[in-house]
Amino acid sequence: MEVYLPSLPMMKILSYLDAYSLLQVAQVNKNWNELASSDVLWRRLCQKRWFYCDMVTLPLHGKETWKQFFIYRTWQEHAKSRAKPEDFTYKEIPVKFEFWAHPCYISRHGLTRNGQGKSAICMVTSVNRISTWDIHEGAMTWVSPVQPSYIMQMTTLPEMHIAVTVDMQSTIKLWDCHNREVLATKALSFSCQLLQAEFTKDGPIVLVGDVCGNLYIFRIPDLYLISKVNVFPYSIDELYCSPQKKWVFLMGKRLHDLIKVFYMSSLLRPSEFSAPVSTVLEVPLIRKVFWTPRREDRITLISTVSPQNNTKFDTFDMKLEGIGNKVTIQEYLTASFSLAEREGKPDYFGVSDKDVIVCSTGSSLLLFDINGLRLQTFQYCPEEIWKLWVDPVHVIVTCNDGSLDVYAWEERSLLLRKCYRLLNRRYQPPSAFIIETLCDDVSIILVMTNSPNPCCLIAYTLNVCS
């Protein structure tokens, strides 16, 4: 005999379940299947897993229900985890990047404007221009005119296929990477120290920090100045936005660490706030910062503790609090631990959405929970770890010989699973150095330099992405 619960309390109960449990509930009977397939439930799961779902509609993704979108998107982002080395095409992009190259993905999750599963990147080179590349084909698809001033920095907004550059004259330029003409320009009074484009609930923006400690926020696509605030007495050196762009972490490193966290809405809507809302984090000698993916308010800092120079991990939760008509930020220290000297000094680190910290020490890949419990160790000897890429799905280790080890976060445990190794097929002399490793759902790219020879872009692309 089947038991039918009223729909309203049943939906409330189902709202606490994850995707795997909802799929199991849907097998019980026809009524439960209908409730467990509700767009309300699945959109909430999509928004929790991919924050950009707050700002898009299903027709943009060619799906009829949020359940379909969740299943397809999960399948797609795990494509690299299911692959084998032979599923990748190895390619060296045949273009001279001279002695310095900086790549940024211009495609969103490996999808181009027409929805095909391909990766596109934008490059800035020392010849004062930027260009976009279909890395599956190894072909250039667009190039800007040569610029009169040296391009110092570039950022991209894949959602709009837009690139933003700033040159030595402190001129910001906005590019639609299909047209040769600049969309908008803006001149700054002081040299730009950092540049970052973000897609927020209030629309697309560019955040700019200068050498005088000023933070500017410009609107895309016209570079209208939304707000300007003096953050530090010296330059802003690092900027990290939280996953849903609720918080902005800013750091200056002149003389001593200066750290502030701003509430993004107070910067984007200055007319609604008497002053920008911020707080200071009292953590000296910060080395690295990582926001916990899919958890909007949690951030982990890695610092050096004197006099022993031990490495310390501090995890904070950021919360808004109201005092009368005033909004303030309160930070709470959630967890903290230090590494023993014998465990080495991490060069890179990241955090999973289950609060697992992964870090590399050169000879080892280490996993801890946020309280310092060792979960896993992967040894690298005689090889060395040169780079570490961490995202919500993968951990990619770049070794000193240019080979890549791809790991995946286990769905229903705290551990990492080693998937495969991608070998570097290019001869790498002792003087060669890997500048950067980046990835999206369907590709992994490396930039290598071997001074005085030009940089080389190496790409591994999945053969099939449907």
Automatic annotation (TrEMBL):
The keyword Nucleus does not apply. Pathway: Protein modification; protein ubiquitination. InterPro entries: F-box-like_dom_sf, F-box_dom, F-box_SCF_Substrate_Recog, WD40/YVTN_repeat-like_dom_sf, WD40_repeat_dom_sf. Keywords: Ubl conjugation pathway. Gene3D superfamilies: 1.20.1280.50, YVTN repeat-like/Quinoprotein amine dehydrogenase (2.130.10.10). Residues 1-45 form the F-box domain. One of its GO terms (cellular component) is cytoplasm. This is F-box and WD-40 domain protein 22. The gene is Fbxw22.
